[in-house]
UniProtKB/TrEMBL annotation:
Keywords, comma-separated and alphabetical: Activator, ATP-binding, DNA-binding, Nucleotide-binding, Transcription, Transcription regulation
Taxonomic classification: Bacteria, Pseudomonadati, Bacteroidota, Chitinophagia, Chitinophagales
Organism: Chitinophaga pinensis (strain ATCC 43595 / DSM 2588 / LMG 13176 / NBRC 15968 / NCIMB 11800 / UQM 2034)
Pfam families cross-referenced by the UniProt entry: AAA_lid_14 (PF25601), Sigma54_activat (PF00158)
Protein name: Transcriptional regulator, NifA subfamily, Fis Family
Source species, domain of life: Bacteria
Length: 1082
């Protein structure tokens, strides 16, 4: 404090002397200072002189001289005091190396006028007037500063500043001295700046000459980097540099020379960003290319802008704030690159620096041209070595699976790609397919196998360009997606964004192409594309030869497989044998779980499985057969595709169900039981689509497209086998039908032979009486109709003759009339007799047999003794008559029939219905047109006619002629009651002829019986029903046989009935054991 007061007194004394007492003394003092300043040659000398002279007038901690930085109202350090108390501050280096603004207008005005002024930092802080640099000074402990602008030739060339830790240290009284002395210091500063400028120009000139000399010796990027970091850093300040090179089309750029001192190297994405290619229209690059001089870029502004490039954000995060860039041009002024210098702060690159950079850029451009040319030569040599290495490496490869991995390993030492594929073109069909690949990126996609190995159109936007171009082609996947194609969508999903492709030629014909797939855009440079093109020349011949050899081997292998398969197929008989052979053979080629062979219907609107070999996981399901072998509409997304495709197809079940959930029960069934993928092909025989083969797998991507083409050759043989199987089945069905017809014909033949022996004609019905005339009239009414006829009458009245007369007079006369005697057949065989049976339907059914309904189809069925039919069979008979269809015993289907029914009985059906022994519904169904035949005793006027007819017929058959009846014999005939009716008359006359010795029958040999018994029987005929008489008759026979029914001497033998028929009659008539008297005898 005392020192400050002493200095103030000195200044006051000097000032007093100047103004009042002694102007000469002040002049002498200034002249002495001027002389000292004139001897100053260095900044340090001037700083020492300033500190020495001013310290005698007032106290201060240190002082500085700043000069304009080049930016308006911005200054930078020119001379620094080594004793500065700010040196210990953490931001001291940033303060003295950066330029800083004069942020207050009154300070700017004072500097411009060369007037001293004091900055009270605490007050300015309170007023918000402290700039960043002044804040650092204040934080370092400075309380106030005394400043004065340095004016030289009416221009501010600097600012002289004194710093004090003590508030109010500087007084206004010293302002005149400061101003007076500052003018002399201005001169010294101007001189030093002039000398520095001259020296700087000398250094720059020397540096440029040195650079020019060094550039002539440069051959690589390392030398250029060393030159930049040693020589250029002597000329101007920068943190690090970067050289980028433009692509040949000037649309993109990439790093050409990276500075290892880059502060961005610590950024996690540095390697990725620095190796990436960038479009030139990203903002900064395009602006630099458009400028004719170096361009300063504000990194903070660019990095915080919308859509800022990632490299700009990385540089900003690394602490960089400014850069300057200039275009490097070749001798033809064509831009080939850019050099960039980066700074941690702002204001480093003033006009002088920019001019220097502009001058240096010409030399750097020359260096870049030389290095690029040298690298081009080296690259060509390296390419040649690489191509020779590849040729040598692949020349000995015989296994094609090793070809692409070998190529990929070598190419990846020079090129940036992840996947490689070689495709084969089918120019005739306009298709291509992948034949070799090594895709570490794309094959991670779940649909790789299903998509990568399909056939695709050559006109897909990629391979049509590759095929037409003499050089390698570079395309983005995004652009190809716009053209269309699921394979490009697949590549995009797999992370592939760029494709380089080149064609493969052999004998001047394009046969394929090679594609390299990269994750990043701009992965391939022009040099890379040239290398790819050159490599294709070496690869083409090798791949062509390999494909040719492989084609030969494949043809031989396929021929062997097909011949073997053909031999096995030829030995198969039936669908089951076929599917067994197919599974055995195809399992060696394909991976599948189930295999099916199916057929289309004639209209190709539906399909069904003919035969299948399916694993237990699915066959164990209770509904498997119902679902698997049902008929389905063809439009299910699989079989319609197979029908319309000429090649094998591959299907993913999950994808089908996602498109049409719940639409296909069969597909849903197999999916729920593990099937994920289906490969199939249609079967074509003689240009007709007859069916399909499908192989089903529980694993996705089980089928390789490269193998599926073999399925086409196999399908041709299977188609023939399936056609033969279908033909065999058809022939078998036809043979079955023929056998049916044969059986029917044999049945008809047998039946006709039986009928011939007892053939009747309409003339066999003899009757002139009114009763018979009524019957004849009814015959004429019903014969031509289709109505059911019920013939009623006693035994022997000629019911069968009437039935045959109806048939012969009907439109069905050219077909059979089949007779069934319902009383003559056992109850358990009547159903089989009527409806037929299948082989094995019951014990003893050793072969199939057609029933009488089928035999009488389109003809007439005569059911004689219909009243004897069991009740349970009456139901089935009624259904057959009403529905006009039958079902064989043991059969699974109904058979349509067209039969006219004629029934006959000697029973009173109305009484049978009333007593529950005959169904009323069947009775009404039969009783459509009843005809009642009169007994012979009611038409005795016809006995003579009948007798004459029978005598003539029997005489003819016995070889006797002119046999006559005597009047006595005729009286016997007319007197007899004829309980057996016409049949009894016929038999009596036959017996009488045989017993007659001459030509005249004089006595009729009637049945011998006592007259009393005859009388009783005659009376019984009128007092009891037929059932009652039959019951008594059977009882009599049973008593005679002592209850024995079957065997020699049994009732069945005596009655001439089958045992089962007799048992049926016994049960029906209610005969019990207690009714037989022989049981009561002791």
């Amino acid at each position: 404090m005392q020192q400050s007061k002493s200095a103030t007194r000195k200044i006051q004394k000097v000032a007093s002397t100047v103004s009042v007492e002694n102007d000469i003394e002040l002049t002498r003092l200034l002249l002495s200072l001027a002389m000292d300043i004139a001897r100053v040659r260095a900044k340090s000398d001037l700083m020492n002189l300033v500190k020495e002279r001013f310290s005698s007038f007032f106290s201060f901690s240190h002082c500085t001289i700043s000069v304009p930085s080049g930016r308006p109202q911005h200054y930078k350090a020119f001379m620094l005091d080594t004793s500065s108390l700010i040196k210990e501050h953490t931001q001291y280096h940033e303060l003295v190396t950066a330029d800083w603004p004069i942020g207050v207008e009154w300070m700017v005005a004072a500097i411009d006028k060369g007037e001293p002024f004091i900055c009270h930092l605490a007050k300015m802080k309170a007023a918000g007037e402290l700039t960043d640099n002044m804040q650092i000074v204040y934080d370092a402990g400075v309380a106030e500063t005394l400043n004065c602008g340095l004016i030289f030739e009416n221009e501010v060339i600097g600012v002289l500043s004194f710093f004090s830790k003590t508030p109010d240290n500087f007084q206004l009284a010293i302002f005149p001295v400061v101003k007076a002395i500052s003018s002399h210091i201005s001169l010294a500063v101007a001189n030093i700046m002039a000398r520095d400028e001259i020296e700087q120009k000398i250094r720059e000139r020397e540096a440029l000459l040195s650079i020019s000399d060094a550039i002539g010796r440069l051959k690589d990027r390392t030398g250029l980097l060393e030159l930049i970091n040693t020589q250029l850093k002597k000329l101007f300040r920068f943190t690090y540099s970067l050289v980028v090179k433009l692509s040949d089309d000037e649309q993109s750029c990439a790093a050409f020379l990276l500075d290892p001192d880059s502060t961005s190297r610590s950024h996690p994405d540095y390697e990725t960003i620095s190796s990436r290619r960038y479009p030139v229209n990203d903002g900064m690059i395009s602006h630099i290319l458009a400028a004719n001089a170096p361009l300063v870029i504000d990194i903070e502004k660019e990095a915080t802008a919308v859509n800022a490039p990632d490299y700009m954000i990385m540089q900003f995060n690394a602490g960089l704030r400014e850069c300057v860039g200039v275009t490097l041009r070749d001798n033809n002024q064509r831009p080939m690159g850019i050099i960039l210098f980066y700074a941690d702060g702002k204001g480093w690159f003033n006009a002088n620096v920019q001019n220097l950079i502009h001058a240096v850029s010409f030399h750097l451009a020359t260096a870049m041209v030389n290095i690029s040319h040298h690298e081009y030569i080296q690259a060509r040599e390296a390419e040649n070595e690489m191509l020779l290495s590849i040729s040598h490496s692949i020349a000995s490869i015989s296994d094609k699976s090793k070809l692409v991995p070998t190529i990929k390993k070598i190419l990846q030492t020079r090129l940036n790609f992840s996947d490689i594929a070689i495709v084969q073109y089918n120019v005739a069909k306009g298709l291509y397919k992948v034949i070799l690949e090594d895709c570490e990126k794309a094959n991670q996609h779940q649909d790789f196998e299903g998509i990568a190995f399909r056939e695709y159109s050559l006109q897909d936007g990629l391979h049509n360009r590759v095929m037409a171009s003499d050089s390698a082609v570079l395309l983005s996947v995004a652009a190809l997606q716009k053209v269309g194609g699921i394979h490009f969508d697949f590549l995009a999903e797999a992370g592939i964004n760029e494709i380089a492709g080149v064609r493969l030629m052999h004998n001047n014909e394009v046969f394929g192409g090679m594609t390299l797939l990269a994750e990043n855009i701009n992965s391939f440079s022009a040099d890379d594309m040239r290398l790819i093109e050159r490599f294709s020349y070496h690869l083409s011949g090798l791949v062509a030869n390999m494909l040719a050899n492989e084609a030969i081997q494949q043809r031989e292998k396929e021929k062997e497989i097909l011949l073997s398969f053909s031999a096995d197929i030829a030995r198969t008989r039936g669908a089951e044998a076929l599917i067994a052979v197919m599974r055995q053979r195809l399992k060696s080629i394909f991976h599948f779980n189930d295999i099916t062979v199916g057929i289309f219907n004639a209209e190709k609107t539906a399909f069904k499985v003919l035969v299948a070999d399916v694993e237990e996981r699915r066959t164990s399901h209770p509904e498997f057969k119902e679902i698997a072998f049902a008929e389905y509409p063809i439009a299910d997304g699989i079989h319609d595709m197979l029908l319309h495709s000429d090649k094998p197809e591959l299907f993913y079940i999950e994808n089908l169900l996602m498109k049409n959930p719940g639409r296909h029960p069969g597909i849903q069934f197999i999916f729920e039981r593990g099937i994920k993928e289906i490969a199939g092909v249609k079967l074509v025989n003689q240009n007709e689509d007859i069916g399909f083969i499908t192989m089903l797998s529980e694993e996705r991507n089980s089928f390789r497209h490269r193998d599926l083409h073999l399925l086409k050759g196999i399908s041709d043989q299977v188609a023939v086998a399936v056609a033969n199987i279908l033909a065999d089945e058809k022939i078998g069905q036809q043979l079955k039908e023929i056998n049916g017809y044969k059986e029917k014909l044999e049945e008809e033949k047998l039946y006709l032979q039986q009928e011939i022996s007892s053939v009747y004609t309409h003339t066999d019905i003899i009757g002139a009486g009114p009763e018979m005339q009524r019957v004849f009239h009814m015959l004429s009414q019903v014969s031509f109709a289709q109505s059911t006829v019920l013939i009623l009458g006693e035994t022997g009245t000629g019911k069968e003759l009437i039935a045959r007369a109806i048939h012969n007079g009907s439109p069905r006369k050219n077909k059979l009339m089949v007779k069934v005697n319902c009383a003559a057949l056992p109850a358990n065989l009547i159903e089989s007799e009527l409806f037929g049976h299948e082989r094995g339907s019951f014990t003893g059914a050793i072969e199939r047999r057609i029933g009488k309904f089928e035999l009488a189809n389109h003809g007439t069925l005569f059911l004689d003794e219909i009243g004897e039919m069991p009740l349970d069979l009456q139901v089935k008979l009624l259904r057959a008559i009403q529905e006009r269809e039958i079902e064989r015993i043991g059969g699974k289907s109904t058979i349509k029939t067209d039969v006219r029914i004629i029934a006959a009985t000697n029973r009173n059906l109305q009484k049978e219905v009333a007593e529950g022994r005959f169904r009323s519904d069947l009775y009404y169904r039969l009783n459509v047109f009843p005809i009642v035949l009169p007994p012979l005793r009611d038409r005795k006027e016809d006995i003579s006619l009948l007798a004459a007819h029978f005598i003539e017929r029997f005489a003819r058959s016995t070889g006797r002629k002119n046999i006559k009846l005597s009047s006595t014999a005729m009286k016997q005939l007319t007197a007899y009651n004829w309980p057996g009716n016409v049949r009894e008359l016929e038999h009596v006359l036959e017996r009488s002829i045989l017993l007659t010795q001459g030509n005249i029958i004089r006595e009729i040999h009637l049945s011998s019986q006592p007259k009393s018994e005859a009388k009783v029987r005659q009376e019984e005929d009128f007092s009891r029903t037929l059932d009652e008489m039959e019951r008594d008759y059977i009882l009599g026979v049973l008593n005679k046989c002592k209850g024995k029914i079957f065997g020699p001497g049994g009732a069945a033998e005596i009655l001439g009935l089958h045992v089962s028929t007799l048992n049926h009659r016994i049960r029906k008539l209610g005969i019990q054991k207690e009714h037989t008297y022989f049981l009561k005898k002791p």
